[in-house]
Each structure stands twice: as structure tokens, then as C-alpha cells.
Amino acid sequence: IPGYGDSPPVEMVVTAQGRRTFLDHVLQELGMQRPVLISPSMSGRFALPFLLAHGDRLAGFVPIAPVGTKDYTAEQYRGVQTPTLILYGDRDTRLAPQALQNLQHLPEHRVAVLPGAGHACYLDKPEDFHRALLGFLRQLK
């Protein structure tokens, strides 16, 4: 994620609109047509603005306890028709419940909870994570 960790700061990603535009450019450069966007943790700052503005360009959305869910209203989430798998570990007691509380307003969502997994549930329980993800992907049109 630009501006996090050891990556250099990028002026464009200071605002939600800039982060949405950045992600849009990445997807265009990769030539992706209706991808499934998987968004763990800090990437929510990029994925959520994109989802709310361009959710119709995604085949699916998989938020994994993303940050920034409280920045949007229930009404904004209700306007998104993108099939969504809300995925998290049951040991993530800080960010996951907040994300679930906000993201449950997405009309086309379902929830998968990974028992015994923390915030990085895909690292803690990779087989369970992949099973849930593949099950969701198979359901998409």
C-alpha cells in the first residue's frame, strides 16, 4: 500500500478520492475486467472508496476486517449491489466486529468466520481461508 511501511509517500493517496483513483489506475493498467477485490486491513482505505463509487465494475468483494468502514453510512453501503463475502477471524475482537457492524448493510453480503484465527486470518488459518474464498468465488456469476 503506497505510503505505508517502507513504501514512499504518494501525494495522490492522501484523500479517499485519490485512493479510489489510484486503485482504478492499477486495475486499468493490469487490464482487469470485473475482478474480485480482496481487501484485508489497511487496504480498506483504497477498496472501500472504490467499492462505493465503482462496485458495479467488480464481480465480487471480500473485505477481511478492513479499516475505514466507519467512514461511510449505512445508506451508502445499501446502495452497493456487489456480491460480498465478509471474512474474518473470531479472535480479531477489535477491528472485525466494527467492520461487520458497518459492512452488514451491504445488501448482497454473506459472512464467514474463521474459528481460532486473528486479524490476519488468511495467515492463521490458510486452509479455512481458501475454502471460504473458493466457495464464494464459485457462487459468482
TrEMBL record:
Classification via SUPFAM superfamilies: alpha/beta-Hydrolases
Subcellular compartments: Cytoplasm
GO cellular component, one term: cytoplasm
InterPro entries recorded: AB_hydrolase_fold
Keyword terms, alphabetized: Cytoplasm
PANTHER family: PROTEIN ABHD14A (PTHR46197:SF1), PROTEIN ABHD14B-LIKE (PTHR46197)
Protein name: ABHEA protein
Higher taxonomy: Eukaryota, Metazoa, Chordata, Craniata, Vertebrata
